[in-house]
Amino acid sequence: MPLRFFNTLSRNLDEFKPLDPAGKRVGIYTCGPTVYDFAHIGNFRAFTFEDLARRYLAYRGYDVVHVMNITDVEDKIIRTVRQTGEPLQQLTGRFTAAFLDDCRALNLLPPHYVPRATDHIPEMLALIGALMKKGVAYQAPDKSVYFSIAKFARYGQLKKIDAGQMRPGERVKLDEYEKESLGDFALWKAWDEADGDIGWDSPWGRGRPGWHIECSAMSMKYLGESFDLHCGGEDLVFPHHEDEIAQSEAATEKPFVRYWLHCAYLLVNGQKMSKRSGNFFTLRDLLAKGYTGRELRYALIAEHYRRQLNFTFEGVDGARASLARMDEFLVKLREVAGSVSAATTTKPAGTPALQAEFEAALDEDLNISSALGVLFNFIRDTNKRLAENAVPPAEAAAILATWQRFDTVLGFGMPQAQEAPADVAALADQRQAARKAKDFKRADQIRDELKAKGWVIEDTPKGPKLKRL
Ligand SMILES: [Zn+2]
Known about the structure:
By secondary structure, the protein is of the alpha/beta class.
């Protein structure tokens, strides 16, 4: 089956074909955080979905190059610097480090490039220069440089805005604005007093870049003028991504991005997240409540990305229970597989069908909820057979090997084999020896000693087995 993505640009499920003529290399750009505060779980829903997209492309055999920027100069950052007096670099450095820690907690694969906006001012100036030269940008009386939407015929192609709604010639200097103020947007913002000591020299005077030009410059630097996938939350469609397309395509006269993927909003307890409603959570807030990054990853990823996710504590408890069920299943399989390795088995029954179903679900626009459904049905059926001792070791080993591959996509991690520490293993051996010598008193004593160390010994047809209490 072909891999298909719902493309915001076409509003269709489009078959995925990489730009690379060899069909191997895939470039993904994801809009990274604006680092003036801790990222909230709505942000992390987008980052986990992007991680899933990247992981699945790699699973499908593509050589993925993933770029995620750090927006470290932007309106909200400047406002925070002004309010708190903390120097820009100190503020953004602190929250960049916190963000990367959060990403590790959620087991998000580190992007291959994590460019910071303030390290790419020359690239932005070059891009603005190219737009000026082509006559699609102009310097306004306020000294800021604006993109003229009237000069770019395809403006509005992503948001599907018709020309009647546009107000070319009217200017908006803010990084974030509503469709009502849809007009020429800022590429370079002339310095004003509110900027304090933040600013860079440019051919158009001292100032700072607009948010949108940051992403155009950084994505094209690392992925080329045209690349495969650009992802983000649905709130980025307009104006951010619309403006990225306009700037990039007007400058290069090439199509900017083939597939635009956007994930739906996250609600908390059925409501839009807001500090005022008391349902606003950073990842840290939830880790502090005792949830693990793994459980939160599951809770954020398990709903298909284009469906609204209603985040609740019952939902995270459900994620915890699902992971426990999965872990228990895999541990049982490991016991059955024993020392049999998957390499010694050939095409064990069941596994190829499982793999085909898992892939078919994800091929259809990364339908993870359906893929997890496939896995839990399989767990239920196989648990029945495990209870009847009807799963041969070779099959258990094959399932485990297949699951290990699935986990490169899921990112939940396989449960660790519970290897008994050396002193515990030695005690178990002594107990075996005592039993052989019919010294049952000593054997029972050792059993109690093991219990005190948190281990039980179970006598199975294959001999004694150590299990954690
Ligand atoms: Zn961006």
